[in-house]
Amino acid sequence: MTRKQYTTMTGDQTAASPEDQEVGHEQNQARYGCLSCHPSGLTPLASGKFFLLAMCMLIFSDAFNIGTLSGALTSLETRYELTASQLGLIESLYEAGNLIFVIFVVHFAGREEHRRPLWIGLGALTMAIGTAIAYSPQFFFPAYEPNWRSLSTNQSTEPLTCGSDWLEVRCELAESHVFQQDSRMAYVVVLCGEILVGIGWTPVMPLAMSYIDDNVNTKTSAMFIGIIQSMFGVGTIAGFLVSAAVASHWVDFYRVDIDEIQLVPSDKLWVGAWWLGLAITSALYFLSSLPFFGFPRRLRTQSPSSCAKDDNFMLESYTTDDPDPEEEVLEPGSTSKGVVSLSTLPSLLWRLLCNPIYLWLSVGSFSEMAVIAGLVTFFPKYLETQFGLSPPEANFFMAVIPVPAVALGSILGGYLLKKLSLKAEGAMMLALTCSIIALIGQVVLLGIGCDDTGLAGVDVSYPNKHMIDWTSVNLTSRCNVDCGCNSDDPEAVCGVDGISYFSACHAGCKEFMNGTFFNCSCVQDPTNQMAGSAQPGACPMSDCHMLAPFLAIMFIIALFSSLEEIPQLMVMMRCVKKSDKSLALGLRHVFTRVFGNIPAPLYYGLAIDATCRLWQQFCGDRGECWAYNLPDFRYTFMGVTVGLKVLSAASYVMAWALLKRRSGAGKLPSADSERVDEGVTMSEYRRVTENGANGGAAAECTGEEDVGNGGMDEGNHGELQVSPV
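-> structure tokens emitted (725 positions)
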């Protein structure tokens, strides 16, 4: 009878061998549970599929936040009188929040011996709190009052017509803080909430990607990552649909009489219930955080075959006998690993920065992320401005056209890698081809749009004036010069002549009855020579029929832009040492934030502001933009996007060229190798670029790993396959 059998029969647990104790400890470590509670009934949850489900829930929540926040920007712009660049700052500070700690989090928490899902759960919980802070100004400040003149007159229900005079009283009230709400403080609170949301996002993607790659078998990991990436599209769709729904409800529906608000969603002063979508987001973040607190350090499904993948993760020509900086700093029994690990961080970062192909892929990543950040932030505004759509309509089209294409492209990218078992060179060619197709589509969009809003005094002339040029804006004409109109608040009206006027006052209307303005001196009635009438609301852009082709091309662009993400991500993870994988993803995260997500909304916003032709002026202060030069808006917005797409495609060309050159050059002799498990050194990179295929090798991503088959492919020496990790 063996000792193990004896102890089992007698119950003498103290006699268990150290090997048995270690096995039992490993089994317990792979069980699902929280703190010291690990019920055996929950053990099946410690699996890759359940982790995939939990990640899909969390990514859906974050994408839902992106959709609801982007859809709420127009309401925030009107509610708190913000400029486009200030709106861009909201998105930028969200990205800055997760940039602050990302390197330290992935360095200390990204190793296999740490419980990475716990950090992800804490991050999701932090995002729930940050989102709650972001929408809290709705409840800390008074209700929104769109009828400015009701504060200075008793005629709150009377539209502003020719001869109304209330600007002077209103400015006096604003100076005494009776009229103007403290929108600046509310804006600061929103910014603080978004910073906290960004901090919470820090551990999510870097730790989740490395956790999947370490615990899921090779054949399915890329498909897992593709499914997770697709949730960004699914969640954003839901977010924009919800945003479109809440935008049709008045912002203060729960505390004011809706019947007293004489506005409709198409009116310029309409503010939807922007905060309601964020409240739903906060609840989703909280619920999605809970499953992560139960996952173990390693999943129970990790098999010896998957461990073999770990041994062969780096390619043959990458590996040497040189020690890893992380492994040589500690003496046996040392307890100061956290302090010492911090000292090794610079050398680990330098190792990544000396990998040219990693750097070129990072350039492509932050270029693509800059495009995504700019489009997600301002695409609804682009649709509203360029095609005359209302905020609910713009959010709806955002949800049903480009966002589903993103989800489809992410899944398709993972599927193609799994199906075709592409090597590194083939995967980069796939990413490059998709990038070029998206670039061509973006160039085409430069010529698709509407050329004017039909607003009198801005881009069309008043009936009694010659056509104005593009550099002059004058809302005053002989027909309304005696009306005393101001341009503080647009209440656009549509004349029977088919021209939109900034307000009934600017149309010269003197009477209002049963919802119609009469005796409008600037409006020519086409049936006679008398003064015409006008209806509330701007005239539709009936002469512009470019929306359908624009949306069709946008769908193609979004599809191919998202399809390129998974191939280049898998190449990147295969070009670094396994122990550096989390840090490499974290550094990539830094690059995409510093050069992509953070500045992109700012310079997109500044570019949009530069095309404004008519600014709101409130008692000497500039507010939001009332009218844009539509051709300039289109050329500027799409021109910035084209420039970023060109940079992305160029970086993929460089990465592909390095892989191609390495394939033709073969492996470096071991005697000439300068690698320390870091991929490729800059000296090797320079040697290849100087001597070409006959002078050496740029052996980034070198070796024999056939990732699609789970290990080294002995029949394919020197060719890396980058199908599923």
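Residues 403 and 463 are 43 Å apart (CA to CA).
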